[in-house]
Design goal:
8 strands, Rossmann fold, alpha/beta, 8-stranded mixed beta sheet, 272 residues, single chain
Length: 272
C-alpha cells in the first residue's frame, strides 16, 4: 500500500478563520500495482466539531481491501461553535473531489468511477456535494468535475427540519441561520435527477441522528428518479462505523455487511 497526504489549499486560498489554525488535506491509500481502479472518498463524521477516528482510516482500509483506491478527507471543523462554517466544508469536499479526479494517472484511477462515502455529519457533507456540486466553482480546477459518480451515506445527517441533528446544523449555520440557509442545507429538499446514485444505511436504534433522516433522502431520490438503496438495520448505535462501534465490543454481524452491500451497489451503478 502507498500512503500519502496532500494538502487541499494553497496559502491564502481558504478564507475561513475561526482563530484556530487548521489544515485541510486528503490521505490516500493506493495499491502498489499499476492496475487502474475505482476510487472512494471517505468523509468522517463528528457534528462538524471534530472528525471521528472510527470513520476514517479504518474505513479506507476496508474499501482498499475491496479493490478501491481509497481517500480520507480532513475538512474544516469548528469545535468552539463560535463562527458558523457555512459553505466552507462544501468547498473542501468539492476541492478534494476535483483534486483526486485531476490526479487520476498518479492515483491509478478511473476518473468516471469515484464515489463519496460519508458518515453522520460527513454523510451530510457528502450529500451536500451530491446535490450542490454545480454551486461550487474552483479557479484551480475549472475544467474538472466535482460531481461524485455515486454516494454511500452512513447514518447521515440530512434535514434541518423536525428530525434535525441540531448540533450539526448549529455548527454549520450558527444560531441565527435564515430559513433559506436551513433549506439549502436540508439536502432532502435539494435532490434532483442529476443527483448521483446513492446507497444509504442506518439503524433503527440510532438515538443521535434519527433514521428518518435516511428515509427522507431515499424518498427524495425515488421521487426524482435517482437510483437508491436504503438499509435500516435492527441493531447498532450511532457512530458504529464498520460495525464495531466505539466501545470496543465485537463487531455487529448484521451491520458489518454494509461495505459489501455498498460495493455491490457501486458496481451496478458506477462501473461503466
Amino acid at each position: 500500500m502507498i500512503q500519502k497526504t496532500d494538502l487541499l489549499w494553497d496559502e491564502g486560498e481558504n478564507t475561513y478563520n475561526n482563530g484556530k489554525y487548521q489544515l485541510q488535506y486528503v490521505d490516500s491509500f493506493i495499491h502498489e500495482n499499476a492496475q487502474r481502479r475505482p476510487g472512494i472518498l471517505i468523509v468522517p463524521g463528528g457534528a462538524y466539531t471534530h472528525l471521528s477516528g472510527n470513520e476514517s482510516g479504518n474505513v479506507a482500509q476496508r474499501f482498499f481491501e475491496l479493490g478501491y483506491q481509497a481517500f480520507v478527507l480532513n475538512y474544516t471543523i469548528d469545535e468552539t461553535q463560535r463562527k458558523p462554517l457555512k459553505r466552507q466544508p462544501l468547498r473542501d469536499i468539492s476541492r478534494a473531489m476535483r483534486f483526486i479526479r485531476s490526479e487520476e494517472k498518479r492515483f491509478k484511477l478511473y476518473a468516471s468511477q469515484i464515489a463519496v462515502c460519508g458518515f453522520s455529519a460527513g454523510g451530510h457533507l457528502a450529500a451536500c456535494l451530491c446535490t450542490h456540486f454545480n454551486d461550487v466553482h474552483d479557479d484551480k480546477y475549472p475544467d474538472v468535475s466535482n460531481r461524485p459518480n455515486a454516494a454511500v451515506l452512513c447514518y447521515p445527517v440530512i434535514t434541518g427540519g423536525f428530525y434535525a441533528h441540531k448540533n450539526s446544523f448549529r455548527t454549520l449555520l450558527g444560531d441565527m441561520a435564515t430559513l433559506d440557509e436551513i433549506k439549502y442545507m436540508s439536502v432532502e429538499k435539494q435532490v434532483t435527477p442529476d443527483t448521483p446514485p446513492t446507497f444509504i444505511w442506518t439503524t433503527c436504534c440510532d438515538e443521535s441522528v434519527p433514521p428518518q433522516n435516511s428515509e427522507l433522502y431515499a424518498r427524495a431520490c425515488i421521487d426524482n428518479g435517482v437510483p437508491a438503496a436504503l438499509h435500516i438495520f435492527s441493531e447498532g448505535k450511532h457512530g458504529i462505523g464498520l460495525g464495531g462501534g466505539t466501545d470496543g465490543k465485537p463487531m455487529l454481524r448484521e451491520v458489518a455487511v454494509w461495505p459489501q452491500l455498498a460495493d455491490i451497489f457501486l458496481q451496478r451503478y458506477m462501473y461503466k
